[in-house]
Amino acid sequence: MFNFFKKKYIPRPIFAPLGTDMHCHLVPCVDDGSKCVEESIEAFQTLAAVGFKKVIITPHFQYPRFQNDEDDIRRRYDVLRQQALEQGVDIELGGVAGEYRIDTGFAPRLENPRFLMIGDKYVLVEFSLHQQMMGCDEMIFDMQMKGYEVILAHPERYPYLSVGGHRMEQLKNQGVFFQVNLLSLGGFYGDEAKRRATAMIEGGLVEFLGTDTHNSLYCQALRDLSCNRKVQRIIEKYEFLNHTL
What is the pTM of this model? Predict the structure, then answer.
């Protein structure tokens, strides 16, 4: 009931300097993201309204919850892309990658890797929000030895990674790129994630920003965030690599 009284903001294109949103869940019905084409179209329209020119979609690959297959994801993405073109969506669909959870199902993937990559170079991985799996470093090293560049999704959301702590320093020294969720900067995931996200960016630890858009709730939060002056100053002050994708 209270949503009727919540102030809504007209979106502003403050994320234009980034160019590309490289983390979102908008292939319908494959994970906990978009549930239909209409929801994906709304998200594309929102991303364009807040300034993005391109979007790379990253469905979950997570064992056993989301046991997606790369070929099936590509086929579903192609259908979505055609539907978006037919509806005249004003944003470039720049490809489909994946967000790969380093879990008990990840090691077998390394034996015959078929990763869906961001920009033919990067693989987006995530840790559990509760605790890091044993052997993460070895698996990341194995990926790097196979020629992949590794991006860690939303490190600000892992409470066991202390900002500036030994573990975070270790990951950076290993050559892992960090991607912070834009909505963390607005407190979408709570005050602690907001504090950590800001500290990581100010500490020069973050190479990429992503929306991690899942559904209509995220879209509204993103539209509201685009009117946040503090977030706008962050986008203007710091250099990120999104525009290279």
Answer: 0.95
